[in-house]
From TrEMBL:
Protein name: 4-alpha-glucanotransferase
UniProt keywords, alphabetically: Carbohydrate metabolism, Glycosyltransferase, Transferase
Catalytic activity: Transfers a segment of a (1->4)-alpha-D-glucan to a new position in an acceptor, which may be glucose or a (1->4)-alpha-D-glucan
GO molecular function, one term: glycogen phosphorylase activity
Gene, per the UniProt record: malQ
Enzyme class: transferase
Keyword match Transcription regulation: no
Stored InterPro entries: GH, Glyco_hydro_77, Glyco_trans_35
Similarity comment text for this entry: Belongs to the disproportionating enzyme family. Belongs to the glycogen phosphorylase family.
E.C. code: 2.4.1.25
UniProt GO BP: carbohydrate metabolic process
Keyword GTP-binding: no
Length: 729
């Protein structure tokens, strides 16, 4: 998020379709196309986790499991798991602009049960499902068991289950329920397979189109959650898993009595004792499904508002110290630098500001808050925006611009009009969005409701209220061409247009190249495809340029194996690793197949390689120049109980070498050689440019000169010049 960009905030549930709630189906793909058409970079969504009491995505039964309400029936029908008559005549709600959560919960369940039954009966899906179970074994079984047992007890909260032994997870009792509820447990596992299969396909489509997903991670989990059931030591609970203290915030711009969230508070001492392992795992899992992660209530890591577990409002509580930078330092050590957005709204003190600065994450600015202060001194005023932040018209907790504006005083309304230079025929939504995109903030995000110029009925959430929230749904007719044109115009005008070239997924590259899936290929074939995939991505990158140019000339370049390094530098290592894992393949096994380029042998070659790597990462205009040795390294073998050295041939049909049409005639005393030039692309870490390693070879090299081990005719320079690096070693 270091360059000027923009995006749209709209949750999946708000997408239009005929199933009562937005899903991962065609309307989601259409929305991606809309983002591409209007030159956006980001699609920001709310948490994808399961929803519990109050239908809030911020109160979930699991910190990891996906919301089955978002599973698309048409996609299940395409898999042969449903017939259209199984769902097309179902009544999912009477108002297409609102989600009726109670109705869809009852209406969707029997349809999903049909799909699960058909799925289990089809052997063709078994390998993929078993692989899904294996890759998600750390959470899937616990979640499925929790949900099945919860249903068994009438969907009551964990603390209200009639069997105290199962609340405490007594081993024999747990074994009994696993047997008794095996079918229900299977249902919850399979629906998670549906969820993640459909979501991954949608995310792949978005990424291929150059659209990145900004996900959302609530800081807390629900008291009625699988985490509280399976990991009670991480929370402040009594013996029956009731929260001793709960989360919330004191009075702020969202609520005069504060917000009582009711989530159990963490036992931060225990988290520290465990090296923050659960947080590292949770964030790592989030980045498997999102490209960027917004962490909700970032202040809670600095200081958190502690309210008695039996309190009815959040107003009376106290601030307690959070884990601070220590947590994020542990995350960084394990996961590296991650694109994280810190939600730093509300009562942000100096301690929280220091934590944000130490972490280096961008914070948020809400223009609505800025315009409410007619003195212009607000932290959120457009003129107080900085490049390293994400600026919004509003979030899910704000009223939409039209509703907000109508509730302003006459003085505040005039301030908005004057500040934005609102035109006579310009809506207040357009004026504020235009001002948003004009700020210096690197990233600007507008809500879909504001882009559509909708009134207050489309507001997503009113904090500190229960019921009537999270319901808004867009209609296809809302998105008119003039609204698309406006968004495209201001995105381009304020230099936020998405310039990123869409990157094809590896699995799609393989499908296009071989007409086969990853599951159908062996490791050797996958290695060949990976090599070509990386070379294909690298080919699109321009060469570093500049008035000055560095040539590093060396007798050798000990560059080592390139596959992993190139995947990391391209920023696709984890993505490819996950794709392979979903196909039951191991990237580490495939990495072992790669032959090491025999271009260097020692410190001289390693130093040369470090230089050309560093210059590529620094974006310097530089090239390496050397010779293309065919057998620079020897491999050791045992023959007849003796250790022997043999040539280590590395130039195969598929290699990192890129042939060029460049050749030179090189005169020697008694003959002339033809020197041809091959290149290897040298990629800098997450750079949009590259450098070259130029390797000169002779066309007349002759492997037949090698007779025994590494012995060869050393006098025949015409045919052996680039055969070995150090033939006498």
């Amino acid at each position: 998020m270091l360059t000027r960009s923009s995006g749209v905030l709209m949750h999946i549930t708000s997408l239009p379709n005929s199933f009562g709630i937005g899903s991962f189906g065609q309307s989601a793909y259409d929305f991606v196309d809309f983002l591409v058409e209007t030159k956006q970079t980001y699609w920001q969504i709310l948490p994808l986790t399961t929803t519990s009491y109050g239908d809030s995505p911020y109160q979930s039964f699991s910190a990891i499991a996906g919301n089955p309400h978002l599973i698309d029936f048409d996609l299940l029908a395409q898999m042969g798991l449903l017939k259209e008559e199984d769902y097309l005549s179902t009544n999912f709600g009477d108002d297409p602009t609102q989600v009726d959560y109670e109705r869809i919960s009852y209406a969707r369940r029997p349809i999903l049960e049909i799909a699960v039954k058909n799925f289990v009966a089809k052997n063709e899906f078994r390998p993929a499902f078993e692989n899904f179970e294996k890759n998600n074994r750390t959470w899937l079984s616990d979640y499925a068991e929790f949900m099945a047992i919860k249903e068994h007890f009438g969907n009551h909260a964990l603390q209200e289950w009639d069997d105290k032994q199962i609340i405490a997870r007594a081993p024999q009792t747990l074994k009994k329920y696993r047997t008794m509820l095996a079918q229900q447990i299977q249902y919850f596992k399979v629906t998670q397979y549906f969820f993640f299969k459909q979501w991954q396909a949608l995310k792949d489509y978005a990424n291929q189109k150059g659209i990145k997903i900004i996900g959302d991670m609530p800081i807390y989990v629900s008291a009625d959650s699988v985490e509280v059931w399976t990991k009670p030591e991480l929370f402040q609970l009594d013996a029956e898993r009731n929260p001793l203290f709960v989360a919330g915030v004191p009075a702020d711009q969202f609520s005069a009595t504060g917000q009582l969230w009711g989530n159990p508070l963490y036992d931060w001492n225990e988290h520290k004792k465990q090296g923050y392992a659960w947080w590292i795992y949770r964030i790592a899992e989030s980045f498997k499904i999102y490209d960027v992660l917004r962490i909700d209530h970032f202040k809670g890591f600095s200081d958190y508002w502690q309210v008695d577990g039996k309190a009815e409002i959040a107003k009376y509580g106290s601030w307690q110290p959070g884990p601070g930078y220590e947590l994020f330092e542990a995350v960084k050590q394990k996961l590296g630098d991650l694109p994280i957005i810190a939600e730093d709204l509300g009562n942000i003190d100096d301690k929280a500001k220091k934590l944000l600065a130490d972490c280096g994450y961008p914070g948020m600015k809400i223009l609505q808050f800025g315009f409410e202060d007619t003195t212009g001194e607000s932290f959120d005023s457009p003129h107080h925006c900085i490049p390293h932040c994400i600026a919004y018209t509003g979030t899910h907790d704000n009223d939409v611009i039209n509703g907000w504006y109508n509730n302003l005083t006459a003085e505040q309304q005039q301030y908005v009009n004057d500040y934005t230079h609102r035109g006579v025929n310009e809506s207040v939504c357009q004026a504020v969005i235009r001002q948003l995109f004009a700020t210096v903030s690197n990233t600007a995000i507008a809500t879909m409701q504001d882009i559509l110029d909708l009134p207050t009925y489309s507001r997503m959430n009113i904090p500190s209220t229960i019921g009537g929230n999270w319901q808004w749904r867009m209609q296809k007719t809302d998105l008119t061409q003039d609204k698309k044109d406006f968004l495209t115009k201001i995105t381009t005008l304020y230099q936020r247009a998405n310039k990123e070239k869409a990157m094809i997924k590896f699995s799609n590259f393989v499908q296009a190249s071989t007409n086969k899936s990853l599951e159908e290929l062996n490791d050797q074939a996958i290695y060949a495809q990976l090599l070509n995939y990386v070379k294909n991505l690298s080919a699109d990158k321009p060469k570093n340029t500049g008035k000055r140019k560095v040539y590093y000339i060396s007798a050798e370049f000990l560059i080592g194996k390139l596959l992993s390094n190139n995947l990391i530098n391209l920023g696709v290592y984890q993505e490819v690793k996950d794709e392979l894992a979903r196909a039951g393949k191991s990237l580490s096994h495939i990495e072992d197949i790669e032959p090491e380029p025999s271009l260097g042998n020692g410190g001289l070659g390693r130093l040369a390689s470090c230089f050309i790597d560093s210059m590529a990462t620094l974006g310097l205009n530089a090239e390496g120049v050397g010779l293309n040795y065919h057998c620079g390294l020897f491999k050791q073998v045992f023959k007849q109980n003796e250790q022997k050295a043999e040539p280590n041939y590395w130039i195969e049909e598929n290699s990192w070498l890129i042939p060029t049409k460049v050749s030179y005639e090189v005169p020697f005393k008694s003959f002339t050689l033809t020197s041809k030039l091959d290149r290897i692309d040298i990629l800098g870490y997450k750079k949009s440019t590259k450098n070259y390693l130029n390797l000169f070879d002779i066309k007349s090299v002759n492997y037949q000169l090698i007779k025994d081990g590494i012995e060869f005719d050393k006098t025949n320079i015409k045919e052996n010049l680039t055969l070995f690096l150090y033939p006498d070693d």
